[in-house]
Amino acid sequence: MKRIAVFTSGGDSPGMNACIRAVVRTAIFKGIEVYAIHRGYEGMIDGDIKRMQSHSVSNIVQRGGTKLKSARSQEFRTPEGRKKAYDNLMLHGIEGLVAIGGDGTFTGAKLFYEEFGIPTVGCPGTIDNDLYGTDYTIGFDTAVNTALEAIDKIRDTAAAHDRIFFIEVMGRDAGFIAVESAIGGGAEFVMVPETKTDLDAVVKSLKHLRKSKTSSIIVVAEGDDAGNAQTVMEIVKDKLQDSTKDFKVTTLGHIQRGGSPTARDRVLASRCGMAAVEGLLEGYQFHMAGVINQEVVYTPFADCIGKSKPLIQDHLKLVEILSI
Amino acid sequence: MKRIAVFTSGGDSPGMNACIRAVVRTAIFKGIEVYAIHRGYEGMIDGDIKRMQSHSVSNIVQRGGTKLKSARSQEFRTPEGRKKAYDNLMLHGIEGLVAIGGDGTFTGAKLFYEEFGIPTVGCPGTIDNDLYGTDYTIGFDTAVNTALEAIDKIRDTAAAHDRIFFIEVMGRDAGFIAVESAIGGGAEFVMVPETKTDLDAVVKSLKHLRKSKTSSIIVVAEGDDAGNAQTVMEIVKDKLQDSTKDFKVTTLGHIQRGGSPTARDRVLASRCGMAAVEGLLEGYQFHMAGVINQEVVYTPFADCIGKSKPLIQDHLKLVEILSI
Amino acid sequence: MKRIAVFTSGGDSPGMNACIRAVVRTAIFKGIEVYAIHRGYEGMIDGDIKRMQSHSVSNIVQRGGTKLKSARSQEFRTPEGRKKAYDNLMLHGIEGLVAIGGDGTFTGAKLFYEEFGIPTVGCPGTIDNDLYGTDYTIGFDTAVNTALEAIDKIRDTAAAHDRIFFIEVMGRDAGFIAVESAIGGGAEFVMVPETKTDLDAVVKSLKHLRKSKTSSIIVVAEGDDAGNAQTVMEIVKDKLQDSTKDFKVTTLGHIQRGGSPTARDRVLASRCGMAAVEGLLEGYQFHMAGVINQEVVYTPFADCIGKSKPLIQDHLKLVEILSI
Amino acid sequence: MKRIAVFTSGGDSPGMNACIRAVVRTAIFKGIEVYAIHRGYEGMIDGDIKRMQSHSVSNIVQRGGTKLKSARSQEFRTPEGRKKAYDNLMLHGIEGLVAIGGDGTFTGAKLFYEEFGIPTVGCPGTIDNDLYGTDYTIGFDTAVNTALEAIDKIRDTAAAHDRIFFIEVMGRDAGFIAVESAIGGGAEFVMVPETKTDLDAVVKSLKHLRKSKTSSIIVVAEGDDAGNAQTVMEIVKDKLQDSTKDFKVTTLGHIQRGGSPTARDRVLASRCGMAAVEGLLEGYQFHMAGVINQEVVYTPFADCIGKSKPLIQDHLKLVEILSI
């Protein structure tokens, strides 16, 4: 393999730049030419492809977002779109790809490999941590810390006013951000998509806690089965009937996607980026490079997409015990 | 004057603890006994009043929220409530008050002074910066920096995806947070209550900017005349008719009230706290201690409440010029 | 077991408070009485022991340092000291201990168990990450992020001035902080105690890099075999003989021990704290509760102290590759 | 005036990029061509001069350091050097300059104007705040906050161990950073170049404080008359003779120069940058654009360099009172 390309796709996550940097420099270190594709599959179709040098990725390891931009491509979902993309890669002599993204990115990469045989190794770039094949995804640690800093700030004002705060964090299908920010933030409750939320039990506990605590924080994953934070707040408020309390909702939103990546995310991103290039050279063709138990592991895209990754049971137990 | 009390009231703001600390230690330094009233006027009515020592305020200078808690008191609005409060102060021999808060706090203090003659000096504790009689209020600088950090994070993801973000910051009647965070955040537009918002002009500019910029950030004060961020986004989206752009809204909410205070807020809070005690000793009775042009200034509550504080004209000009 | 006590000992680390909180609340949750010993073994000897309630550990999960204070005790190294400590524990009816600390703490706990048979479960509280029996120690992640933020700041000024910076981070015997902050910080070199440092090779590389880079960052663990940052700088400066460059040294020092713990440290600390109490109840008597491969693992103190924990080989490779 | 150039010179400071951005965009907004000179006077001599567009300064408002790099030029101190610089400016048709820097920068600019008549308006870019003609300098607020965050972290570990910490902050001739970080950090003492340091008084106070406080923080400006932090620590340790205390020194160093600028610095930098361009157009030729009492003020370089700027007296009083 003499020439590869790297791109980011889907929702951006902090650490993507560190990962791009690692891919580019590892490739150059190993004597391979490396190109960047801008705006993910969209740029592949448009031929937005440029040669990268070592200095092209200087001073980006600490930056949020993605220097290569990201996009969701409708056209790549069509056979015509993918053919165009393939032709552009051929035009530049690209023999292998590194795809940084999540579920959707790998679904596209898998299909593309099956149709055109372009070897692709993926790096797990998503804040949600919901990818099988890696202990953590790139961007997750930063997102949790961002959520946690927000919770810390909100606790200041919650405590000053005896309030019950419902804080909505990202996580449409997965509660990882919610659970870790709830433990770290000392939240009284956490509501996640993976478990059935029992609002009556929450109300009962709140009544009980009321004697010992004047303010409470409840972390709600956006995809919880009981509804989003606003919905949950209204139900709880209605059931609790406590006029001495203020009920407030804060939806953290897109701040969770940005920001300078944490150490953990930079190290993970760098390691996955290096492993992706090494993986291509070793012959992996439709795999994601993740880190499990401190070791690099290559997992077929089919498993990354198809298998689910459970929450850590101890973590759910912790929220319950520590809120007493 | 031999014995004074300090309390925080209204919405909490970062730096209130630094201010409490300064009041307590300045009083002790000057040989005066100092008490803390918990939960503002509510605690005054309930007699929730405790003696403070120097170590009572150790290790709080860096903390958000307020150690003394805050509340909005309905009962203090009644003559009966105020009479109870007065009786409690007399019971403890309190001869003067330091009130840390905003508009509502000082309105109460003014009335209380007129009825019972208890001298009160106020400290400007509110994140909104909308108090006449001080260049900045305690908590404003922290709130702006919190908003700015959020905008920085959002720009990462906005730039990665070619998005138009509408970010709502606090400010029901005043645009100070909006304007300074817009300048600092490199926002394309800012919408504030003090000026008439012309959405057609914004749409026209966005069309123009579109050629040079792929993403834009628009900061909206919650009290803007055109509506909140969600409303404004919907109108702009409808008028702009650009299907290549994503339109997103983020409402920063209560994170702006919390967090460890910035240096500027700690220094301002400390200075106002010291000045409040000195002011009581010098005979001020219904004044706020603020800092104007680097000097301590005592302004009658009537002016603090009644006079308006304009935005800095240069700041509005900056947003316009710097967004090109 | 009906009554246990918890203490922190040795160098403090961020997350110790989160760990104390978890120990206290898990104990109470399980119906056990829990006491706090202040100032580690010193306080055990002095009888500085107090009953804890759930609210005793409110609002500390986010705080650096340790609420229970820490100390290094000379007296505990004597049989007389340990006897006094034992007598005090008996006086309070303490049947089991949770010891939060590092090497020295566990050495003491092991001896104490052997002499008096008091069951003790440890939690790995040290920023250095040099404890066998856990993937990470409590405080390590925060320390790395603190070092990284410092490196990010220094890179700004290094880049502005074409400078070579030698940044000394903590790590007397272990290079974990150095390696992860070097990867994350995009450093050109890292020098750690675990590997022989070849300054001639560094000088040669710097000469080579000079063509492509105008500024460089070199991370030096305080215990590197080539000397501390100041020493290393002087040798490199002397060998390099490049008058166009400024050579600067920054020693990060004690800021690495403080600060609000990161999400990772709070979650790890909470989990170890819970596991320590559960471990005591399950009959562990001279073990540390750590987390390996996402699972709680109990390791005998003898192994924690005696076995060494190697750096991750991929990490050293990353620094080399990514600095090109 | 049709064409101007901007450069940064001397020690870099956070906010310089925001200032460059404001200069470039204000110029373009007003229909003036704008060039950037790299590496200060050094680049002027080398002819390192490039045309700037609006997008040249995109996405830099939040970045520390200076995109244009900075340098200290020996050659510019010679008449030959300055002649070369002048010739290069003529070659590009530059009719006016914006110089972002401190004392040394303005000394050069003044001389250059006197010799060649090139109008120059300066912006106060230095972390030290020691420039007459502006309430604050660009970078000062960020530096103070960086120092403060470090002090907050150190207090965590100081409190955990009953230690006396001597923290050295920047400030060779001025104590602004020291004083504001000492107030904000709740330090027990501050030592600054502007006032005579009496170590015997410090020792006496420490003995007195010992009864009420177990740990102390002493902030030392690097240019204090009693010596740097290490020297002062050794003297105090020797005089105090208290073996129950640990004495520690931390020198914050270059982290104080870097980092993303605070809101205050970004706003000030933006305003000064705009004012510098407007000043050139209004005919100012050897002036610095600063902000005093919230208004833009143009001060002759001679005064900026020659007149001294005193510390705020209340601030020194605050450190004394608040440390009780």
UniProtKB/TrEMBL annotation, chains A, B, C, D:
Function text: Catalyzes the phosphorylation of D-fructose 6-phosphate to fructose 1,6-bisphosphate by ATP, the first committing step of glycolysis.
Gene it is expressed from: pfkA
Regulation of protein activity: Allosterically activated by ADP and other diphosphonucleosides, and allosterically inhibited by phosphoenolpyruvate.
Binding, Mg(2+): 103
Active site annotation, chain numbering: 128 (proton acceptor)
Top-level class of the enzyme under EC nomenclature: transferase
Keywords, sorted A to Z: Allosteric enzyme, ATP-binding, Cytoplasm, Glycolysis, Kinase, Magnesium, Metal-binding, Nucleotide-binding, Transferase
PANTHER family the record matches: ATP-DEPENDENT 6-PHOSPHOFRUCTOKINASE, PHOSPHOFRUCTOKINASE
Annotated ADP binding sites: 21-25, 155, 186-188, 211, 213-215
Family: Belongs to the phosphofructokinase type A (PFKA) family. ATP-dependent PFK group I subfamily. Prokaryotic clade 'B1' sub-subfamily.
Domain of life: Bacteria
Protein name as it appears in the record: ATP-dependent 6-phosphofructokinase
Pfam (any one): PFK
Annotated SUPFAM superfamilies: Phosphofructokinase
Binding site for substrate: 126-128, 163, 170-172, 222, 248, 254-257
HAMAP family, per database record: Phosphofructokinase_I_B1
Subunit structure: Homotetramer.
GO molecular function, one term: 6-phosphofructokinase activity
Main location: cytoplasm
Residues at which ATP binds: 11, 72-73, 102-105
Cofactor: Mg(2+)
Location of the protein in the cell: Cytoplasm
Pathway the protein contributes to: Carbohydrate degradation; glycolysis; D-glyceraldehyde 3-phosphate and glycerone phosphate from D-glucose: step 3/4
Biological source species: Algoriphagus halophytocola
Gene3D superfamilies: 3.40.50.450, Phosphofructokinase domain
EC number(s) from the headed UniProt entry: 2.7.1.11
Catalytic activity: beta-D-fructose 6-phosphate + ATP = beta-D-fructose 1,6-bisphosphate + ADP + H(+)
Every Phosphofructokinase domain range: 3-279
